[in-house]
Amino acid sequence: MENTIYQFSATNNLGESIELATYQNKVMLIVNTASDCGFTPQYQGLQSLYQHHSTKGFEVLAFPCNQFKQQEKGTNEEIKQFCDLHFNITFPLFSKIEVNGENTHPLFEYLKTQAPGVLGSKSIKWNFTKFLINRDGVVIKRYAPSTKPEELEADIVKLL
Questions:
Q1: Pick the catalytic residue: 37, 65, 83, 107?
Q2: Total domains, the chain
């Protein structure tokens, strides 16, 4: 478990601590999200991927973040209400976190190290950066915010 994402835990939107080892043997897509972003409609694509592949062992883990132009101002409860109202998401939603800077959540520190961005950059540039994790908890790839969820389907299916 040591060099995998299973060594981490995160707080869900209800305030419960969730061990990522809970998701062992599942393919995961971990995404930093925001409710007031040009990419927010990607929630719909994420939900569609989740609906089509969750029975085969696929999970989407959404981590709201307010670090990019304050596009996620709401409380955890308000974020959940927004997601339910506009996108009817059924995948796990976590508490708001930071993905850059000195208060970066340890999971995202790890993800950025395992899958650097363009030109080896570690920082996350915007909302809806996506990380694909295989069934062994190993980070496979980072996708840019502009990459639509449906464009990841072939990569996800390969890992399932």
A1: 37
A2: 1
Domain with 89 in it: what CATH number?
A: 3.40.30.10
pLDDT in tens, 22-74: 999 999 999 999 999 999 999 999 999 999 999 999 999 999 999 999 999 99
Nearest-angstrom CA–CA distance, 81 and 98: 21
Q: Where are the alpha helices (DSSP H) in the chain?
A: 42-53, 76-87, 106-114, 153-159
Q: What is the DSSP letter of 119?
A: G
Residue 83 bears catalytic tag: no
Residues 133 and 108 sit within 8 Å (Cβ to Cβ): no
Residue-level pLDDT at 3: 86
CB 119 within 8 A of CB 39: no
Domain, as residue range, for 52? 5-159
